[in-house]
Amino acid sequence: MSAKHAVLGLVIERPGYGYQLAQRLEERCGAWGWEPSGVYSALDQLEGDQHVRRLREKGSGTTGRRAPRVVYESTPRGVKFFEDWISEASAPSPFRQELDLKILFSGPEFLSRLIDQTWAQEQRCINDLRVLTSTTPSGPLDRVSWREAAVVLQRDAEIKLLQVRIEWLQDARQTMRKILDRSAGESSR
Amino acid sequence: MAPLLSLKGVCKSYWRGPHETIVLADVSLEVHPGEFVAVWGQRGAGKTTLATVAAGLETPERGSVCFEGRDLAEAPSGGAQLRHEGIGWVQRLGPQCGDFRMVVDYVALPLLGRHSPRNARRNAAAMLKRLGVAGCAGERWEGLTDGEHTLVALAHALVREPRLLIADDPTANLDVLQREEVTGLLRRAANEQALGVLITVPDMPTMAYADRVGSLSDGRLTLSGEPDDGKVIDIRGKQQSA
Question: Which fold has domain A4-87?
Fold first, then answer.
């Protein structure tokens, strides 16, 4: 998923220049892992589609030592595009994993190795989870803003994605172990 | 810094007839002052067993559980004094005995040994206020909502100002914002009062604000910060591509 819609949403909230928008994007949805360079390509694309336009050039300075910063603002067309995007149905993300393919195509002789793989991937998920939970609580919730609540909901969505994956890894491991145990029982008889 | 809580090689199993179910198999875990540790597990994974063993309410078959360096199993009276002085256990079921006319009296109960009844009630009322349920002080436990039960149970555990707080599913029955309030409060208590916190949860978003997170499965605890084998792929790779 490109950063296009997120960058447009930020520009609609308030105009900004590229570096500023990259910082705001990182603050708002760092967990999505978009590169700062993605902001500039998104701005190029949005400008080409006339969803944003150059408001002014800022900070060229009297010394002229720095290149001017281009401040972008949204266009009515961009606002309409964003509103349509908000309203349309969202397809769930594709969820295809290399490990899933390995499980699908491997024979029973690989079960022990695949069980090890589930442990390794669970460890990786738990380490990823730690990154998502290293956030700072917002203030007293009787004063929580929609913006703060939205950040919580976005973080929850990311965490739930990992939870579903870990649950599946544990279920897969349990199933593989049962089949492995059954095979061991049959061969010893 | 020495750990507040240290579980080393803890094993625990249950027997149902001739069948043994291993719930904890060689589980090791430390919680330091000011550290917030959250452990997730699916239903039946052993979360409650882990919490009760860590709180000294159950004894492991093998391994040790130490609070501030002292083995709970070897301490006098099974560590009851140690537990009472230093560990706050969140009892979500509410009063297990006694008839409390008012919630504030139940919350004040752990203070009665060292405070006058009046001071104990005053401190209890302050703790209820801190958790945003001051309005429950004059109510009966039975009259509270599920969310209020959880918050009052936390107040009951925190009112003694324990050095370690242990809770099994402390945000049960809370909505997202209430859950954020409770986990944010635990985070702040860890930061500001060096409270060690260990919680077990059935839902991973409750782990937000934890310093370390783990999952419990097949009796084994997988904790954040451990290396994986480096061969696995990032499950969010699809989303991360710009």
Answer: Arc Repressor Mutant, subunit A (1.10.10)
